Q: What sequence folds into this?
């Protein structure tokens, strides 16, 4: 039953104003979802709500007052519903299920990772050699002695095959000790010409120190065609060194020996700010015995090959002085690249 059955239009409208003022205040000051719900029941409740009572009052008013009251009532109803929605939204933003978690506090930003410096180096090397016309080749890390030694002109008695210098597997296979295996695989699988680079992990039981690891990465290059000379090797490696380490880099070829190249050289590099010549890898003209092993005609084609240590290149580029830092996954270190 309505509290007032006989009020004039004027008092009825004043009551509506008062109702709106009280209700909006109740919603605005509600500090918890429970308080919003209590205010909703009190003002907007379908059974005993005060808005419902105000609606019922319409019937008691004289006919000529009904239109004004009805319009004002609709405005109050909308204002109360909007205040209720706003209070709910405000508290939903601040708390989840009322459990005290303030979701309006600044969040913990997820750490965005990036590619490992060695992967960045590998990508860059592939890019540079790609521009020089080299395609990318791949080969397995678990190899056989044919690809790791025999086809590379490394005879059974050669010290490089010493069990103490290799990770041999019980089945007679091995973890490849150099990416030169991929030279063999490429030439076995296609006729000349061949112009590829291959990047991959290699394994050697070397004692770990600041410049050596038991697992590291190499980039292998191979260019075989008619008329390839040592001059091509030098210019490709010089172009590469300048692209990767800068215009002021100097490159030196030091006579050396590898069973699969003849002549063979070590590639040293010297650059501004460095501490002296650093050996980056080996290279040479592909030995005719390797061509024989893969079925290439050594009377018709010549070629060069090179193998560079990716860790060493990456370290020189970034001024990293200990190879072990590259494998520890310490984000304080990795974040710098
Ligand atoms: C070779 O592995 C030859 N296959 C390179 C080659 C390819 C010669 C084609 C001729 C033609 P070497 O053992 O020197 O060569 O290794 C090449 C490079 O790998 C080294 O110069 C060095 O940069 C890197 N390297 C070698 N051992 C390690 C190691 N334990 N840790 C990190 N890097 C290494």
A:
């Amino acid at each position: 039953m309505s509290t007032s059955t006989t009020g004039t239009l004027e008092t009825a409208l004043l009551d509506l104003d008062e109702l709106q003022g009280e209700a909006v205040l109740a919603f605005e000051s509600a500090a918890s979802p429970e308080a919003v719900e209590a205010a909703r029941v009190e003002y907007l409740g379908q059974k005993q709500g005060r808005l419902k009572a105000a609606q019922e009052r319409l019937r008691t008013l004289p006919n000529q007052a009904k239109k004004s009251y009805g319009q004002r009532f609709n405005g109050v109803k909308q204002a109360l519903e909007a205040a209720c929605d706003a209070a709910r939204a405000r508290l939903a933003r601040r708390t989840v299920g009322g459990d005290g978690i303030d979701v309006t506090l600044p969040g913990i930003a997820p750490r965005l990772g990036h590619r490992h410096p060695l992967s960045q180096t590998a990508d860059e090397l592939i890019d540079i050699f790609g521009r020089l016309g080299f395609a990318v080749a791949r080969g397995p890390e678990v190899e056989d002695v044919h690809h790791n030694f025999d086809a590379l002109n490394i005879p059974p008695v050669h010290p490089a095959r010493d069990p103490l210098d290799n990770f041999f597997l019980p089945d007679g296979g091995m973890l490849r000790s150099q990416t030169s295996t991929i030279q063999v695989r490429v030439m076995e699988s296609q006729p000349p010409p061949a112009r590829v680079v291959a990047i991959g992990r290699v394994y050697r039981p070397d004692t770990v120190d600041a410049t050596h690891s038991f697992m590291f990465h190499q980039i292998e290059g191979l260019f075989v065609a008619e008329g390839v000379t040592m001059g091509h090797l030098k210019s490709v490696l010089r172009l590469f060194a300048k692209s990767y380490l800068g215009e002021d880099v100097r490159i030196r070829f030091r006579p050396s020996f590898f069973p699969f190249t003849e002549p063979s050289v070590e590639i040293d590099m010297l650059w501004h700010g460095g501490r002296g010549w650093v050996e980056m890898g080996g290279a040479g003209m592909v030995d005719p015995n390797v061509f024989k092993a893969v079925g290439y005609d050594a009377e018709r084609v010549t070629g060069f090959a090179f193998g560079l240590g990716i860790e060493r290149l990456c370290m020189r580029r970034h001024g990293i002085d200990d190879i072990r830092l590259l494998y520890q996954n310490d984000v304080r270190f990795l974040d710098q690249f």
